[in-house]
């Protein structure tokens, strides 16, 4: 009897051991994947989609501020940039930005054509999720530059320039700050792209409009925005997308993302108020264009600081951004006489510089891990200044060279006749506000179905 009991006991031990092994096998698989957080992954995918929405936001924002004859061309520059830069980023841009560093200046080609960029963990999210988030930043930066060139740059020239610029300028600069490069090692604070996105696009825009020259009639006749409701729609889309831009830069759904979200809202509001108060005092009336421009100035200003400062600092940063950018657009631009069509340098360049430097003052160690000037870290001001100056010099020189190179391939500027007609008809055969299109040089009325 005792022998039978031992056999039964041994059999149950074997069954229990076998069951434990079967349960442990999927457990081991789960343990191997636990570095990827579903919550963080979902958050980052939503943030990436929000940043993508900023591209049509730019298209509406810039399109509304342009001439009615150039609105299609303006929108096309933003939206085509999204398509072109997406492919460039996959093929080589991401690797140059985030590949293993070469002397702290450029990444290797290990991720060429997204080789090795799959579902393996990168922090707590899949590597591919991180790469596509960064893709949206690259496309957005090139699209921002287009606002300075509205009404006079040849569409083909802009596309060639965009491909070269993201390769030669944006990818290395991104590597310097976020990809293991020398500015990151130096300790620069740039949470979501004050230097990488806004100073770089602003400086490139300034250089480009100087190389191209002013629009025909600039300074001799008014060139007001043709559709202010469209401007506000674009600004609203940008404001919404900016939450993904800044909060998403935390790369996880946590307290830091929430903090970045909060200060983004505060700075945008303060920037809008700062701008309209300044124009109310200077011109006697607050404007819708000023409100839209001010909120963008506040958003630009908080971008480098979003993961480092508290709400009270965000008020100062946003308010200062609105005031400083208003002065740059209304006074500095007129004194220097350059034709930045939609004030890219005045808002993104100046706002980015202001945001980068003021971050060093208000950074809170308890939030972002680095103290600022108010917490006794005066050295951070010097680090930020080095980053700002190096960004301006590098972007300015490289952009000038690239524009001259593109000019050897295709003329940079449209003809005077095309500029008179408007780039919508001249470059795309479309009119944003009629039922007529031009196909093969023939004007066609779609409703009547006849050619003229």
Structural account:
By secondary structure, the chain is mainly α. The chain has 16 helices and 7 strands. The protein has helices spanning 2-33, 38-65, 71-98, 127-145, 155-178, 182-186, 194-212, 228-247, 255-283, 288-302, 311-336, 344-362, 365-368, 379-409, 416-421, 423-428, and strands at residues 101-102, 106-107, 121-122, 125-126, 436-439, 442-445, 450-451. The termini are far apart. Mean pLDDT is 91; it is low at 4-9, 14-33 and 441-452.
Report the β-strand fraction as a percent range.
under 5%
Largest sheet: 3 strands, antiparallel
Query: Which regions have little confidence, pLDDT < 50, spanning 5+ residues?
Result: 4-9, 14-33, 441-452
Output the helix-strand order. Answer: HHHEEEEHHHHHHHHHHHHHEEE
Q: Estimate nothing, just give the exact number of structural domains.
A: 1
Distance between the termini: 107 Å
Q: For the CA atoms, what is the radius of gyration?
A: 26 Å
Give a count of the beta strands, DSSP E runs of length 2 or more: 7
The neighbouring-strand order within the major sheet is 5-6-7
User: Which structural category fits the helices and strands?
Assistant: mainly alpha
Do you know the CATH topology?
Ammonium transporter fold
Name of the level-1 CATH class:
Mainly Alpha
| CATH homologous superfamily heading | Ammonium transporter AmtB like domains
Count of runs of 4 or more consecutive helical residues: 16
The geometry reads as globular
Topology, element by element:
Elements: H1 2-33, H2 38-65, H3 71-98, E1 101-102, E2 106-107, E3 121-122, E4 125-126, H4 127-145, H5 155-178, H6 182-186, H7 194-212, H8 228-247, H9 255-283, H10 288-302, H11 311-336, H12 344-362, H13 365-368, H14 379-409, H15 416-421, H16 423-428, E5 436-439, E6 442-445, E7 450-451
Antiparallel strand pairs: 1-2, 3-4, 5-6, 6-7
Helix pairs in contact: 2-3, 2-4, 2-8, 3-4, 3-5, 4-5, 4-7, 5-14, 7-12, 7-14, 8-9, 8-10, 9-10, 9-11, 10-11, 10-12, 11-12, 12-14
């Amino acid at each position: 009897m005792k022998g039978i009991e031992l056999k039964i006991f041994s059999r149950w031990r074997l069954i229990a051991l076998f069951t434990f092994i079967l349960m442990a096998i999927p457990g081991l698989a789960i343990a191997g994947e636990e570095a990827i957080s579903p919550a963080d992954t979902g958050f980052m995918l939503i943030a990436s989609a929000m940043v993508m929405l900023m591209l049509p936001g730019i298209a509406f924002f810039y399109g509304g501020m342009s001439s009615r004859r150039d609105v299609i061309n303006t929108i096309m520059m933003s939206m085509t940039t999204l398509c072109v830069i997406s492919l460039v980023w996959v093929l080589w841009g991401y690797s140059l930005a985030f590949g293993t560093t070469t002397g702290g200046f450029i990444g290797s080609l290990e991720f060429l054509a997204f080789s090795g960029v799959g579902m393996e963990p990168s922090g707590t999210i899949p590597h591919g999720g991180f790469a596509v988030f960064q893709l949206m930043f690259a496309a957005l930066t090139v699209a921002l530059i287009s606002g300075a060139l509205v009404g006079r740059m040849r569409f083909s020239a802009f596309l060639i320039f965009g491909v070269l610029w993201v390769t030669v300028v944006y990818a290395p600069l991104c590597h310097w700050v976020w990809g293991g490069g020398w500015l990151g090692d130096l300790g620069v604070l740039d949470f979501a792209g004050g230097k990488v996105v806004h100073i770089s696009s602003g400086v490139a825009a300034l250089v480009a409009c100087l190389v191209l020259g002013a629009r025909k009639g600039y300074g001799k006749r008014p060139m007001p925005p043709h559709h202010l409701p469209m401007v506000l729609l674009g600004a609203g889309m940008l404001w919404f997308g900016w939450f993904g831009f800044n909060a998403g830069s935390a790369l996880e759904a946590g307290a830091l993302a929430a903090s970045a979200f909060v200060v983004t809202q505060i700075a945008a509001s303060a920037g809008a108020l700062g701008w309209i108060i300044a124009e109310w005092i200077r011109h006697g009336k607050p404007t819708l264009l000023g409100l839209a421009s001010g909120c963008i100035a506040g958003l630009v200003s908080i971008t480098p600081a979003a993961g480092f400062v508290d709400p009270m600092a965000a008020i100062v940063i946003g308010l200062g951004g609105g005031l400083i950018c208003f002065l740059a657009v209304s006074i500095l631009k007129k004194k220097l006489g350059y034709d930045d069509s939609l004030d890219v340098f005045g808002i993104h360049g100046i706002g980015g510089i202001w945001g980068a430097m003021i971050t060093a003052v208000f950074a809170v160690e308890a939030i972002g891990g680095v103290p600022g000037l108010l917490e006794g870290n005066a050295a951070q001001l010097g680090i930020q200044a080095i980053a700002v100056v190096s960004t301006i010099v590098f972007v300015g020189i490289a952009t000038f060279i690239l524009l001259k190179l593109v000019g050897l391939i295709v003329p940079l500027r449209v003809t005077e006749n095309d500029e008179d007609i408007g780039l919508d008809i001249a470059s795309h055969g479309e009119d944003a506000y009629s039922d007529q299109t031009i196909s093969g040089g023939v004007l066609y009325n779609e409703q009547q179905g006849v050619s003229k």
